[in-house]
Amino acid sequence: VQLQASGGGLVQAGGSLRLSCAASGRTFSSYGFGWFRQAPGKEREFVAVISGSGGSTNYADSVKGRFTMFRDNAKKTVYLQMNSLKPGDTAVYFCAATYRTSGYASEIGQYKYWGQGTLVTVSS
Hints:
Shape: globular
Largest sheet: 7 strands, mixed
Mean pLDDT: 96
Number of helices: 0
């Protein structure tokens, strides 16, 4: 599967952005998807994951209550709605696909396919 992330940009602290990740292939619902981010000089970290059906999601503690991940299987797209953004959320955001469809996959090694990343910059 090929993944194309989009929706990044520059936003002020407290603002919102919605990231999208469009997938190719015919078996979209057979994958779980995750969002990861990598800030300058830091390691890539888990942000959120969604199950194959979309019925289960899990989030990193740092974004819980502010970010919401959802998917539209008909459009073969997953989304990350980011509200109440903070400067600490500044990073390149990557979407990724995993064969784990339960909604529990927070490790980089659990993901098979990766998108190219989209930059989110939050100004103070």
